[in-house]
Amino acid sequence: MSTDxxxxxxxxxxxxxxxxxxxxLYACALKYFVFPAEVILTGFEGIASATAYFTGNPAVFxxxxxxxxxxxxxxxxxxxxxxxxxxxxxxxGSVILGLWLLPEFQFASPEPQNxxxxxxxxxxxxxxxxxxxxxRLRGSTGDEDVLAAWFAMRYLKPVGKIxxxxxxxxxxxxxxxxxxxxxxxxPVVNTLMYTSIYIFTSAETLNNFFRKFKLVVLTVFGPDxxxxxxxxxxxxxxxxYTLQDAVGGYHGEAMRVxxxxxxxxxxxxxxxxxxxxxxxAFWFHHDIEGISSRYPIKPIG
Length: 301
Fold this sequence. Notes:
By secondary structure, the protein is of the alpha+beta class. It has helices at about 5-35, 45-55, 60-80, 80-100, 115-135, 145-155, 160-180, 185-210, 225-235, 265-275; strands at about 215-220, 240-245, 255-265, 280-290.
């Protein structure tokens, strides 16, 4: 067996363990923080959790969750990639096992006048981290993350934005069930506030730790623009760059500026190559929004 083949198998094993870890982390976020606080999740998870709160039967969540994730796994297999779908199934399976096998603990009191906000904030952070870890390993925690991966590839939008859109439908559904159960508007508004905090905390955490679809413009000044361009192409062979004529304001000499657009995921490698190949180069970069749909980004998985 070749060394490269062995390394590939070891890397795949560690990635699978990482996906299982992401699933268990997400299960912890749900079981110990989200469910006790009774906030409404996003997408099909939100419909499942709201129905479970309404019926008072936690098993309802698992039944709806398993059925919906199975359908989404088929969608991921057909529309995204087989690798992404299989890794999503592995992560979701870990979530299900975690919810079933993890012991019962109570880390904070869920009543609004006590520590519900702590449950919501910490649950949102853990959920966002779990989602980001799984996506970075070419999988997902399922649900709206599958649709987010598909929309992100088509429209080059950060994946966390789709979670906010998916949350709108499930939140309306959950609030309606909450009102039917209590016939009181006060707890419904209270749930809406805490749910909004959870959704935005989770989405922001996800966007900050998974940057595949966040773009930057990199501008480089240096004495050898050809060498700078070669460094960019070495780090990211599928990218190109633009050369622009400029005049130095201090010395008045002609010079050329190299400019390219890369993802946050690609940026560290590109800067490392430029620093190594052209150490005297000066560079800066800034985030951008909105780009032609022809801009290529490798699919997740």
